[in-house]
Amino acid sequence: MKPRTKLQVEVWDLHQRLDNPKEHEPYVISKHKFYYTTHYKNLVCLECNHQWKPSQVWQEELIGVECPSCKKKLEKVITQNGGMASRILTYSVTQVVGRFQLFRYFSCWKHMQKNKLPRYSFHSLFEEWNDFDVKKRVIVGRTQSWSGDGFSSSDYEIRYVNTSGWRGNPYDGFVSDYNCPGAEILPRFKKYGLTSYKHDFDYRLLLDRLGSSPKLETLLKARQKDLLFFALHKDSHHNRYWPQIKLVIRNKYKIKDAGIWYDYLDLLRYFKKDIHNPIFICPKNLNKEHDRLMNKKRKIIDARNRERERLEAEKRQQKLEKATVEYVERNQKLFDLEFTKGNISITILKSIDEFKQEGDELKHCVYTNEYYLKEKSLIFSAKVNGKRTETIEIRIPELTIVQSRGISNQSTDYHNEIVSLVKSNLGKIKSKLGPEKQKKSKKLKAVS
Q1: Sign of CA dihedral 333, 339, 345, 346
Q2: 292-310: per-residue pLDDT in tens?
Q3: At 146, which helix (H) or strand (E)?
């Protein structure tokens, strides 16, 4: 988009006169991690290409590997594409240009390949020009994309900032991995002492939030770095636990891991401890106390789960016993029936245990889908030479064969003979059922 307003024209003119801040490139390069790859059972350092056989027992990924040649601690293994890969870091440069507070964003790509030294390339992403006097800003940069560093290779242009609607401004969601040292800020923000404070907060987000949140300003001035980082970039737990944070600041207790500390406070609340007592909220060993309460709660949860499982097992057993009694009462008059022809014998399933055996051997759902609960179905088992072969479902009172299935619900070589044998003995089944089961109804077409 071409600059249209007077402010956009001014910003575009200043943007074209900006220098590329190459002095920050060594700092950003130093923030990249060191990688290695594998060659058969040898390791290859992707920093100096030294290859050696590890002294540790071979495994796919070794932790804490040190290159014998360059002495760099290699933290990650790259196994795809023959050790050829790229890794990306984003960083920001904070400057003052005239009356504007300028935030510039870049990406640093580390390209690695076996038998070659790593190569670095730098890409500019976008800039945000803020005029805090009139509370207006202008975005200059590339369009966003879903690949690489999140931006396309389009030209730098004035970008339309849409702050309305549910999506808001897509550039607001971008946060850099690192801030470059030597940040310049407007005099109005120097009261916060930011330039003398080493931190990893995104300046754009921090300066935007400081003016509207006294709590964040308090965390900044108290040098509670991890609490402030968590509040800016992760979650708003500081609002819920602000009285506890004030106690922490008053007792000069430093939170080094805000996530663990907030979880610890949740555990204290669960055990109904006094979370307004500095003895509890400022432990000497936070991780140890967190783990102690976590394990204590886990035992309670495990005991509760075991009790729930026991009660559920009792209910299942009671349901099964009731189903067994009802099944026997409903079908015991058929238990003495057996149809045989040659090596084929057919009998009704006489218990729920037999349903389970039938389902397990033939690998179908006669047991898992609780066919024994179907009051209008009779389930017979056909055996060939004493081995379970097919399961037959007969619909009553119509006495029609609904299905006859073998292993994995497939038909067997004996399917037609089994179905024929059942059909020829439907009269015996009818006579055993008694008059209460022999009410005439519209016959259903048999399914074989």
Answers
A1: negative
A2: 999 999 999 999 999 999 9
A3: none
